[in-house]
User: Fold Phosphatidylglycerol--prolipoprotein diacylglyceryl transferase from Methylophaga thiooxydans DMS010.
Amino acid sequence: MTYPHIDPVALSLGPLAIHWYGLMYLLGFVFVWLLGRYRAPRFAWQTNQLEDLLFYGAIGVILGGRLGYALFYDLLANLDNPLNLLKIWQGGMSFHGGLLGVLVAFWYFGRKTGKSFFEISDFIAPMVPIGLMLGRIGNFINGELWGRVSDVPWAMVFPGAGPLPRHPSQLYQAALEGLLLFIVLWLFSAKARPRAAVSGLFLLVYGLFRFIVEFVRIPDPQYGYLAFDWLTMGQVLCLPMIIGGLAMMMWAYKRDRVTKTG
Assistant:
């Protein structure tokens, strides 16, 4: 298959260019807001609280994502030209950095509202995968973060990646870390769960899905494979998520049993 050449600029208004990548992030926040409004009454959240959280979360995603990318994946290039950090339309957002930025936003929002950290994270976690899915679609439109050379029927020849067809790993991530993770978390959180269990499941399942996709995704060229000719920086960063998510769920259910038995 040939990559469907999509202009990364969705709309040009004179000197102003609106990129699909940026629009995907905007759509992600819109969908999270809509889903949050749907969930808010059940969790005793007010609309203005949801909107404040999304505002802080958006800042955390953008700042954390860009700083995380600079720190984890492209430190030397960004030190040479710090203004690159402002060019989010060109891609270069680290999920792990964005996650850290969002966690800081949760902490700050909790300080202001009196809500506990896990009360916030359990509420928002089931909605996050929709934004992740749209972000990966933005990567696909940009023709970046492609996969390894492959002969599967749906492999694509990406511009700038040579003449050989490759795994469309961006779409794998959109399907697994986005759509499927959303379904898992939405169904899991439909029933009352111990505090922190939903957040733990998010970390665990996202980490597993991302770790798996990294096997068919080309690693960042500045790092390549870190060991064994397959271990990537993305997988290294996912290991604490998998371990932490599993430990968080075990802790949540153990504490719940202790509470119920007195």
In short: The mean pLDDT is 87. Residues 26 and 85 are 18 Å apart (CA to CA). Residues 233-261 form the longest helix (29 residues).
